Amino acid sequence: MANENTGRLLIISGPSGCGKNTVYDALALRDKEIGQTVSATTRKPRDGERDGVDYYFITEEDFLNKINNNEFVEHVHYATNYYGTLRSEIDRVLKLYKKVAMVIEVNGALNIKKMYPEAVSVFLMPPSKEVLVERINCRGTMDADELARRMKTAEEEMQKSCEYDYVVVNDVLENAVEEIYNILNL
Ligand code: ADP
Ligand code: 5GP
User: CA-CA distances (angstroms) from residue 78 to 19, 30, 41?
Assistant: First the structure.
């Protein structure tokens, strides 16, 4: 990615289920200059998820090949699956939009921030752990072990919130969106 474009990079991160995608979708309705990278993952699609829209759903073999070919700007192994942002995605979105948003988990976000210090990083904080459990459960696609794993990861992730440029609490959706919109348009 060219240097002159890095100021237009927004990283939205936080624990799985805190509302990152919901907040991003609402932000994109408000700010027509923003587009989102589509990540690649080895996770199976949830009901309603579409290949090429929500994720590029690929096999582990394919994912590992792409790592070897240096096709990812960042990638992580999270819970039991691989997730990563393809270099080609950032270029694709930059051709279409002035601002590029990446909605990713914490380790990937902090790596991207190191590579592109001018990027604006936002940690989206759930109002409480109880609300986070409710939000994860309301997607209704996770067994108890997976939920416990994600909650443990969530606690570790929340401890890293101080490494972000901004922490935004996602309690009332409209307020969180407004806050991020204002941050981006400072
Ligand atoms: P993430 O992208 O962080 O994994 P999602 O955007 O999928 O999280 O949100 C998880 C669940 O929480 C969804 O059911 C979503 O509708 C709900 N949710 C997100 N933000 C809010 C909010 N501010 N108030 C109430 N429910 C929310
Ligand atoms: P989920 O399985 O709930 O869709 O995603 C699990 C976590 O991986 C979420 O926090 C999500 O934001 C994150 N994630 C999705 N795509 C990427 C990516 O390309 N890179 C990184 N580092 N995390 C991602």
Answer: 17, 30, 10
